[in-house]
Specification:
single chain, 76 residues, alpha+beta, three-stranded antiparallel β-sheet, 26% strand
Length: 76
């Protein structure tokens, strides 16, 4: 999963994933609060589990590292 906090960031991430042929779903998700207490909402990108690692690496390489949320394998 990746969460974009601005519209410009969401559009750039959408272009990147589309250019790489990735199937994804975008959904609004709350991610924090403003100084006045209003809920901040971002664009959450969901990809198939089998493409999560690839998509995460592509987004990190493109400079979106802070918004990439990938669960790795469980620690043993």
């Amino acid at each position: 999963m990746f969460i974009a906090v601005t519209l410009a960031e969401a559009r750039r991430a959408e272009e990147l994933l589309t250019d790489r042929g990735v199937n994804y779903v975008i959904q609004p998700e709350p991610f924090g609060r403003t100084l006045l207490g209003s809920t901040r909402v971002g664009a959450a990108f969901y990809v198939p589990v089998g493409q999560a690692e690839y998509c995460g690496s592509q987004l990190v390489a493109a400079g979106f590292g802070l918004g990439v949320l990938i669960a790795g394998p469980p620690e043993l």
